[in-house]
Fold this sequence. Notes:
Layout: H1 6-16, E1 21-22, H2 25-28, E2 46-47, H3 52-65, E3 69-72, E4 88-91, E5 98-102, E6 107-111, H4 116-125, E7 128-129, H5 142-147, H6 155-158, H7 161-164, E8 165-171, E9 177-180, H8 193-197, E10 206-213, E11 215-216, E12 220-228, H9 231-245, E13 249-256, H10 257-266, E14 280-288, H11 293-307, E15 313-316, H12 320-331, E16 343-344, E17 347-349, H13 355-369, E18 374-379, E19 385-391, H14 398-402, H15 405-418, H16 430-438, H17 443-456
Parallel strand pairs: 2-4, 3-4
Antiparallel strand pairs: 1-2, 5-6, 6-10, 7-11, 8-9, 8-10, 12-14, 12-15, 13-14, 13-18, 16-19, 17-19, 18-19
The site of flavin-adenine dinucleotide (FAD) has 37 residues, from strand 3, helix 5 and strand 10.
Amino acid sequence: MTPPSAAALQTLKSAAGTGGWTDDPAEIAPWLTEWRNRWQGHTPLMLTPRSTEEAARLVAICAEHRVAITPQGGDTGLVGGQIPYGEVLLSTRKLRAIRDVTPLDDAMTVEAGVTLLEAQQAAAAADRLFPLSLAAEGTATIGGVVSTNAGGTAVIRYGVMRDLVLGLEAVLPDGQIFHGLKRLRKDNTGYDLKQLLIGAEGTLGVVTAATVKLFPVMRSRATAMVGLETPAAAIDLLARAKAETGGGVEAFELMKRIGMGFVLANIPDTPEPLDSTPPWYVLIELVSGEPGAADAAMERLLTHAFETGLITDAAISQNDAQRAAFWKVREEQSAAQKPEGGGWKHDVSVPVSRIADFLEEATTAVERFHPGARVSAFGHVGDGNMHYDVLCPLGGDLPAFLARWAEGSQIVHDIVARYDGSISAEHGLGRLKTEEARRYKSPLEIAAMQGIRAAFDPNRIMNPGVLF
Ligand SMILES: Cc1cc2nc3c(=O)[nH]c(=O)nc-3n(C[C@H](O)[C@H](O)[C@H](O)COP(=O)(O)OP(=O)(O)OC[C@H]3O[C@@H](n4cnc5c(N)ncnc54)[C@H](O)[C@@H]3O)c2cc1C
């Protein structure tokens, strides 16, 4: 796409008005890179509309002048889709209203720039639960979690964003507003346009507001850290936990000892979570609507698992501080890798029943390809989703190791594909994985996606560097 003309940029600035745009490099700079410092973008202009109507006017001008747009929310995305490379950056951060919370509908409508944490808090204030939860929730926005179809830690019980959105409002690539903020559980009236926008990574329009599902607040919650010998034991434990609690498992997160070691060494205030140092850990959270019932269920589950040799160690959290400490060692798994020198990151999923075999096969293949490489697999194993990260051997040549990323990833992704899995379980494709995904999507799927995109955005002005 050619860079926007000076006339188009001037028209956008006039329409955005004072406070609605900036081209000051210092002001824009923080929004041109991201958490992992992997991407360093550039843009001639950042737009910050304060209402859906303002956003629609700006997108209409972009459409008229064929100016490409990169939408951005909290800039916590992990695949670079929110970073502009010459496109105008349209930030939704100023769309801040919580429009309504309607407990009788178990629904809430929030604008795109509301953070995930603020949305959770608004639901809690009405004695309801908005269950999407992830480590970046203080910064990630509703527009971003919709556009990446985010998952997080409670998917096993409540699903991903696709399962949690009842309605959407969005500015389409020609500047028209799609008014789809319904709060219906049932609406069989043809194609579901909101589902196309969910997970579209900013390629089909700018999401300006979403109506999301709310749930009852659980009256009891029990959290435990468990030690096990193998991932296969974790999958057995998961099956038992689901069967015994009738759907009461809210989180089930697997971690490997090596990753736990990185956290203990590199993140302050993180004590060993167990007395022993097992090869694998699981953080389990059980919930129940009945006071005290989750604690009793956890006690039963772990006692039986211990007696039958399924687990080797366990600690049930006794208070909020201990629960937070358990979650901290899980949530810091990724950050704790940074001082180790970075690595090849993978966000993959396979059917839950095949996780153990996948981990074994992938690790054997990676170790053969790059002897000494350190595999730190962790993640939402209850959803079959692992963050399968491969770090440079201790004392190894980091630049040479990183130069083998693409080749090493292909080995991992080919195994994922053979296990009928996905090379992007929850982060999306963005700039990082779009090309790689072409290897695994069928020509039919790619052509269908291109057709949908062309119908919404014939001039491909929305996030042109992302998806097919
Ligand atoms: C520490 C950490 C932990 C994480 N854990 C998880 C996890 O457990 N599960 C998970 O799924 N993700 C996780 N993520 C990834 C990230 O938080 C999610 O991708 C999140 O959904 C991004 O939201 P955001 O507002 O920051 O979006 P951004 O990063 O700003 O944008 C992400 C994508 O969405 C598009 N976009 C953003 N807003 C809009 C909008 N209003 N309209 C149209 N397109 C838009 C962008 O163009 C881009 O393609 C994690 C990230 C970090 C840093």
